[in-house]
Structure formats: C-alpha cells, structure tokens
Design a protein that fits this description.
By secondary structure, this protein is an alpha/beta fold. It is built from 12 helices and 13 strands. Strand 1, helix 1 and strand 2 form a beta-alpha-beta unit.
C-alpha cells in the first residue's frame, strides 16, 4: 500500500490535462505518492494523449461515463492507498501543495477529510467559488464558504489563513482517508455530480470525524470545467441534490419542517429565475423537485441504512440561521459578517 494516491477523474478534458498535469508532476513529491487519471470513457483524445505524453501517470479506464460520484467510486476501488486526494482536472497545484494535507492526517487522527485553500485560476488574488477556504452549510441546506457567500467572492488578503474545522471540503480537491471513504459508502452515485462531497462530509461528521481546511496548501481552480454556472442541468442537479442531502442527513426532529421550508424557498428561487428571463433554469428547478419526490423511497432506505450504524447528532454543526435572509435581506456579504 502506498501512502497517498492523487486521482483525477477525466471526461473529455484533454485540454485541462495538457495544461495542468505538468504542474501536478512538478509540484508533487514522488516519495510514497502515486498519480492517477481515471477516464470516464472520454470521446476526445484524452486516453491516447495520456499514454503518449504522461506514461508516468497511472491510467484507469472506465467503460462508460459514470459521472463524478460513481466514476470516483469505481476508480478508487482499484487503488490501494492510505489517503486519497480527489483532484479536479482543471486545478493547478502549487509548490508544496500536498505535504500539508498529508501532515494534517498524520498529526490529527480525528480528521477524516481536509482540503487546501482554493483560489481562482483567472483572478489569482481571489478565492474560487467551489470551496474557497472551507465550506459550511446553513440550517436550510444552503452551502457557503469562508471567502464566498452566494456570488460574492472575496479577495484573499490572508484573512482566512488559519487552519480550522469546517463542515465540508470541496470535491475540487478533497483529501480523505481511504478506509473512511469506503466505510462511509463513498460518493452517492445517484447524485451524478454536484454536492456529493457535502453529503459525504456530512456522513463523516455522523461517524465522529472532523473536516479541516489547510490554507498552507494552495491550489488554483478554473471552475465550471464540465458545466457552466448558468447551465440548466447544473441548476437541476444542485437543487435536487441539495434536497437529497437534507433528507439523507438531517436529524429526525427537524427533518420534515426543514424540507417544507426549503421547498418554499426553492419556489421563490424558481420565480426569480422566471421573472429574470431564465426560463430554462425555472424549469430546471421544477424538474429538480419532481426528481427529488420520485427518489424519496430510495433516499429513505439510504438514510435508514446509514443512521442504523451511525446515529451521532449533527444539527449543531449547521449554521443556525438562514444565509438567504442574512445575505439578501440584512445585506451581509462576507463570511466574517456571519461567523464571529
């Protein structure tokens, strides 16, 4: 068994591999580390390119596009390592990026997963949307980050350089103990993509493990590499999967009232899309709800199966207010306005 496996899941991402693999090879220590690309049955020239140009990187070929979640599940089953690092193909790693993450695990046995500071590839003085300097979630399931609240993205002026416990670590660069990944059930394949890392981190909390951000490790993320931010498919997946993580993970005493309020808030969001002229996104929210309703039976089985083994309460880890109200009504735009 090696100590650390860095695994990139690729689907038609030759342009990213060509740009970012040289940084990964240059800035990743060779000792007890293996680099992998798991290919989700790409239809571009990714596989041939990897074989010709990066023979030192191990290639795992999957027979079809399983999506982000199941693609990683199937790839990681073929890797024997103590720690996994799930790394997006559109991430530039900096010098010394991996060592702090490994040290976090080595020195803190209760930390089950961790992440680096995520900054914007194009605006390198700013945090990046999908993780910034650690992720949190409010009582109604809305995720936010230390450095990013909704579409307000802060400049990094070292204000969030402290390594702290967070609620979730971004899937753009998620380091996790391999035994916990499998014990927790891995990423939920029914999510396909988006928010599956929040769901996994929530399960780790229920197993009494912690999630940390390690800002001494810094990477730069392009973002939107597979789906653009305005893509209705992404809208559908985000709304559907957000409801799913609430149903699967909330404590029983607040489950139904929280889901009810969240459905109302989603209805308001869909009307905002409609009146703003984003008709496809409006329909995406409707589709998300019907998809959620049709999956309740499956979600209930998953919830019962996991909570029968891990019944630790987790509601106290959620931000206790509505960030929708705090952001849009009270005008709080920065993480420091929310969390003292």
């Amino acid at each position: 068994m090696i100590k650390t496996a860095v695994v990139i899941l690729n689907w038609n991402g030759k342009r990213f591999l060509e740009t970012f693999l040289p940084f990964l090879i240059k800035n990743t220590p060779q000792n007890n580390v293996e680099l992998y690309v798991a290919d989700n049955n790409s239809t571009d020239d990714s596989v041939h390119f990897l074989k010709q140009s990066f023979s030192q990187i191990k290639l795992i070929r999957l027979e079809k596009n399983w999506g982000f979640a199941e693609g990683y599940n199937r790839a990681l089953q073929q890797i024997d390592a103590e720690y996994f690092v799930l790394l997006n193909s559109d991430v530039e790693v900096s010098a010394g990026w991996l060592e702090p993450l490994v040290e976090m695990f080595d020195n803190n046995p209760q930390v089950g997963a961790c992440m680096p500071k995520i900054k914007d590839y194009y605006n390198r003085n700013k945090f990046e949307y999908a993780g910034a300097s650690g992720g949190f979630i409010d009582k109604y399931g809305f995720p936010f980050c230390r450095g990013r609240i909704f579409d307000t993205i802060e400049e990094d002026v070292a204000q969030y350089n402290e390594s702290i416990e967070v609620f979730w670590a971004t899937g753009a660069c998620l380091a996790i103990r391999s035994n916990l990944y499998f014990e927790a059930g891995g990423l939920d394949k029914d999510f396909f993509a988006h928010m599956e890392e929040i769901d996994l981190c929530w399960r780790l909390h229920a197993m009494n493990f912690k999630i940390s951000v390690v800002p001494t490790s810094e990477v730069f993320h392009v973002g939107g590499g597979t789906l653009a931010k305005s893509n209705p498919k992404k809208t559908m997946l985000n709304f559907r999967n957000n409801l799913a993580i609430l149903y699967k993970n909330l404590d029983s005493n607040v489950l139904f009232q929280t889901i009810f309020i969240r459905l109302i808030l989603d209805g308001i969001a869909s009307l905002k899309f409609l009146f703003s002229g984003y008709f496809n996104d409006f329909w995406a929210v409707i589709k998300a709800h019907f998809s959620f309703y049709s999956s309740i039976s499956s979600l209930r089985k998953k919830r019962r199966a996991f909570k029968s083994k891990h019944s630790t309460k987790t509601n106290h880890l959620l931000y206790p207010k509505s960030i929708v109200y705090e952001y849009f009504v009270k005008g709080k735009k920065y993480f420091s306005d929310f969390v003292k």
